[in-house]
From TrEMBL, chain A:
PANTHER family noted in UniProt: (3R)-HYDROXYACYL-ACP DEHYDRATASE SUBUNIT HADB, 3-HYDROXYACYL-THIOESTER DEHYDRATASE HTDX-RELATED
Family note: Belongs to the enoyl-CoA hydratase/isomerase family.
The protein's name: MaoC family dehydratase
SUPFAM superfamilies: Thioesterase/thiol ester dehydrase-isomerase (SSF54637)
Domain of life: Bacteria
UniProt cross-references to Pfam families, sorted A to Z: MaoC_dehydratas
InterPro entries in the cross-refs: Fatty_acid_synthase, HotDog_dom_sf, MaoC-like_dom
Automatic annotation (TrEMBL), chain B:
Protein name: UPF0336 protein AB0D95_01885
CDD domains: R_hydratase_like
Domain FAS1-like dehydratase intervals: 6-137
Pfam families according to UniProt: FAS1_DH_region (PF13452)
Similarity annotation: Belongs to the UPF0336 family.
Chain segments annotated as coiled-coil in the UniProt record: none
PANTHER family reported for this sequence: HYDROXYACYL-THIOESTER DEHYDRATASE TYPE 2, MITOCHONDRIAL, HYDROXYACYL-THIOESTER DEHYDRATASE TYPE 2, MITOCHONDRIAL-RELATED
């Protein structure tokens, strides 16, 4: 549990490297299998539309997993994450094509806490709209 | 129909142990496209101070949510799961989940609320390892949208 980032080198406002994640129908099927979440709104267009969605949507937990990577790639050790929480505010609609959907994630240090910990606030957007709210992680740095 | 407030504080017995396997972690990490070697290479994980490969932070949701199904499908509670969406998700880690863990989940209903016809259910899963140590707590907020009039 040793982050490669030193607490002393970080200030409130320090930006984490932003990342863009691409989600296609194939991604959703693979995540369904790995996570065991086979809800048809994530792979069956007909079903998704019947329940009032515009199309198939990504698993919220998949978006949450991708957003975490901005923190874990920065910290180096994923085991340095002490807390992580999000609110699912908008679905990520994934069309049935090769492009799929992209989610852009950025993060910055919002607070320095005790015990070498910092709070990182994340922003995740799809098509210009926030898809996660209250997206925060607490990480223990070196 | 609003959910019964008397369910607040109710706990469900611990689940049978879930054994965390290296290959399951590898499969999960691949599905989120994450090449971090701490998830797949025991030596890389050891170099970071972990006894074996660790799981990505959200991996444990599959385990905690499966345990939460006992609440969701509790006929006494009477939640209409067809109207449920995942509102919030939070985790607090004492340490990362790792290969070899045998995890049990104790599920508790933290809150039951009714807001503008929506039922809101806060479910907490305390995940313990085989020695009884708390590994992670998972909080899941579910929102059952109001049934349409008619």
């Amino acid at each position: 549990m040793t982050s490669k980032v030193a607490y002393a080198d970080v200030e409130v406002g320090t930006e984490l490297p932003a990342q863009v994640f691409r989600l296609t129908r194939a991604t959703l099927v693979e995540y369904a299998g790995a996570s065991g979440d086979f809800n048809p709104i994530h792979w069956n267009e007909k079903f998704a539309k019947e329940v009032g969605l515009p199309d198939v949507i990504a698993h919220g937990m998949l978006t949450m997993a991708e957003a975490a990577r901005v923190v874990t790639d920065w910290a180096g050790d994923p085991g340095a994450v002490v807390e992580y929480g999000v609110r699912f505010t908008k679905p990520v609609v994934v069309p049935n094509d090769d492009e799929g959907a992209t989610v852009e994630v950025s993060g910055k240090v919002a607070a320095k806490l005790d015990d070498n910990q910092v709070r990182v606030d994340l922003t995740a957007t799809h098509a210009g709209q926030k898809v996660l709210g209250m997206s925060r992680a607490v990480v223990r740095l070196a | 129909m609003a959910l019964d407030q008397s369910f607040v504080g109710r706990s469900y017995p611990p689940t049978d142990p879930y054994e965390v396997g290296r290959e399951k972690i590898r499969e999960f990490a691949a599905s989120i496209g994450d090449p971090n070697p701490a998830y797949t290479d025991p030596e890389a994980a050891k170099a970071l101070g972990h006894p074996d490969v660790i799981a990505p932070p959200t991996f444990v949701f599959a385990i905690s949510f499966k345990a939460a199904h006992r609440v969701i499908h509790d006929p006494e509670l009477g939640l209409d799961y067809s109207r449920v969406v995942h509102g919030d998700q939070k985790f607090a880690y004492r340490r990362p989940v790792r290969a070899g863990d045998r995890l049990t989940v104790t599920t508790t209903i933290d809150a039951v609320k009714s807001l503008a016809g929506n039922d809101i259910l806060d479910i907490r899963g305390d995940v313990h390892d085989e020695t009884g140590e708390l590994v992670v707590t998972a909080w899941t907020k579910l929102v059952a949208r109001a049934a349409e009039e008619g």
